[in-house]
Each structure stands twice: as C-alpha cells, then as structure tokens.
Design brief:
The chain is α/β, with parallel strands linked by helices. It is 35% helix and 26% strand. α3 crosses α4.
C-alpha cells in the first residue's frame, strides 16, 4: 500500500495556558493522498492556516500525530529531507522588490543550495510556465500585483518539491491572472504528479480545482468529500435568491416559503432569502405570489446551482467570508 502524502491523526494545537488558552485546532484527522489537490475551506479564524502549518512541519502540534511522506516532521533526522520535499507558497507576497524576477529566483535557489545547472534549468522553466519571460530582467517592485503574485508562487517551488502548500494563492487578482494561477496549479498536480494542499476563500476556486475538500470551523473538520458529493449532500433542486424591501419580514417570508410545495429548505443570509426548490421554473410564479402576499416588494431575484458556500451555510448558518 502506497504511503500517503500527508496523514494526521487527532491533532490539537493550543496557544497560551490556563484561562487565556485558545485551542485553535481541536482534533483533526485526515489523509491526503499523493497526486491529490486537496482543499481547505473555512472562515477566518477557523484553524485552516494553523492546521496546514502543522501538516507541513512548520509548526508543532500540542498533541496528535503527523506523517509527511511517511516521515515525522519533528524528528531532527528527517527534518532536512522533508525541507527539500515541501514547498510553501505563502498568502502574503514574499518577494525582494529591489531584485529582478530572475534574481529573486536565484536568491531562492541559493537558499535551497541547488546546483547551478539545476537551478538555471528550473528558473528558465518556471519563468516561462508562469508567463513572466518578458519581465525576467524587471525589478520586482515594477511588476503588477498579479505578476508579483505569480512570482511569489514560483519562488516557493524552485526546489521542485513533492508536496506543495498554497495558502490563499489568488487574493486581489484580476480574473485573467487568477485563471493563469489556476492553470499553473492544476498542471502541478495533473502533469507533474505533485500533491497540492490549497486554502482559499473563493468557492469557485475550490470547486474547479480540488479533488477533495475539507470544510473546517472552530478547529474541527465539519465535512470532507469531493465538491460534487458535498453539494449533492444538501439536497436536490435549484436555489432561488430573493431580496425583499423589508428586512423585518424576512422571518415571515421564510416561514411562508417553507410551507410551499416543492420547497426543500429556506435560509436567511444577511438580507437574502435562499430557497431550495424542486421544479423551480414551473413553480416560480406561485413562489413570488407567496412573497407578494406578505405586502413586500422583491428587489432582487436570481436562480443558481448549489455551491460549496451553500454547503457551509447549511452546516453553520453563516457565510464562509464571515
């Protein structure tokens, strides 16, 4: 049986002591397989980054076990070997602004003590793949935000790691740059056989890229499965989003819609009613009549498919971006 890329068993992480202690991770267990693109979703403060730092050996857990490629990260005999096999792409852009693109890459190559021949091949390969060839002699501070983000990405994998952690790789990017990063990350897995662990707040990103995804909150895994199975788990039917002009009547509208034929569930998110309904097109006129009978006006109406954020709302009653 092949050794998993990452295996964690009942890991906990507590900061502080006594009454001021904060338990950031509360018993996470999971297995991430080689060649898998694994996603972590959760609101800020859910324990995503802490969990991942433990999984790749950057942080030691308070208790529980971690194995990376069959090795224990806290074992000093394997720490050096693991360092060469793990790549970290941080959320914050960590580049040297007064160095060129090429010099930034050489700096990282020297930090990993790569041979000159290997480093040169790797730098040329990565700069081309990420679309920065025309900027290789440009100072990093002259790059656009998207170009800096792409440079940040390839600096983290200069040493050709086996396991790669991407912590929020696309915040603030325009759509074109985001798609370029998506394509690059997918190729790492599908064409090069890398294992990538991805944290993100973007539901479309997780849905399009990941093989499996874990949704975590308050330091615990709530669910873990493929995106399609997670979306299917919360019911059939399409989603109707309805915004009315009187927030005081949201609860009354929810109750009225909950009793309507074909409606599977109704949730309120901020000032929006989200209604899951079977055969929604045929029932739309009658649904709207239910709202109008309450003496309110509809300000927004939309129909969409289930998303991973709907899964999270179904589990916790709040949005992933809280």
């Amino acid at each position: 049986m092949e050794i998993p890329a990452i295996e964690v068993l009942d890991i906990h992480k507590t900061y502080g002591k006594g009454e001021s202690a904060v338990e950031a991770v509360r018993g996470i267990s999971l297995t991430i397989y080689k060649g898998e693109l694994f996603g972590f979703l959760g609101p800020n403060g859910a324990g995503k980054t802490t969990s991942l730092r433990i999984m790749v050996g950057l942080l030691e857990q308070s208790r529980g076990d971690v194995q990376i490629l069959g090795m224990t990260p806290k074992d000093r005999h394997t720490r050096k070997e693991l360092k060469s096999k793990i790549g970290i792409i941080p959320q914050d852009i960590s580049i040297y602004e007064d160095l060129t693109v090429e010099e930034n890459m050489w700096f990282m190559a020297n930090a990993y003590k790569l041979s000159k021949d290997f480093a040169e091949r790797r730098i040329n390969e990565l700069i081309k793949k990420i679309g920065l060839e025309e900027k290789r002699k440009s100072l990093a501070r002259t790059l656009s935000g998207g170009q800096q983000r792409r440079l940040n990405l390839i600096m983290g994998i200069i040493h050709d790691p086996v396991v790669i952690l991407c912590d929020e790789p696309t915040p603030g990017l325009d759509p074109q740059s985001r798609v370029a990063v998506w394509k690059f990350v997918l190729n790492l897995v599908k064409k090069e056989g890398k294992t990538v662990v991805l944290t993100t707040h973007f539901m479309e990103e997780a849905d399009r890229l990941t093989d499996r995804v874990a949704i975590i909150d308050h330091g615990k895994v709530l669910v873990l499965d493929t995106p399609d199975k997670l979306k299917a788990s919360i019911g059939e039917g399409d989603l109707v989003e309805i915004q009315i002009n009187d927030n005081d009547k949201l609860e009354a509208a929810k109750e009225a819609l909950s009793n309507f034929k074909g409606v599977q569930e109704v949730n309120i998110t901020t000032n929006l009613l989200t209604v899951r309904c079977l055969d929604v097109i045929a029932r739309m006129a009658a649904l709207l009549n239910v709202i109008e009978d309450l003496g309110v006006e509809i300000e927004h109406l939309g129909i969409r498919n289930t998303t991973l954020e709907d899964v999270f709302i179904n589990l916790t009653g709040r949005t992933l971006r809280d």
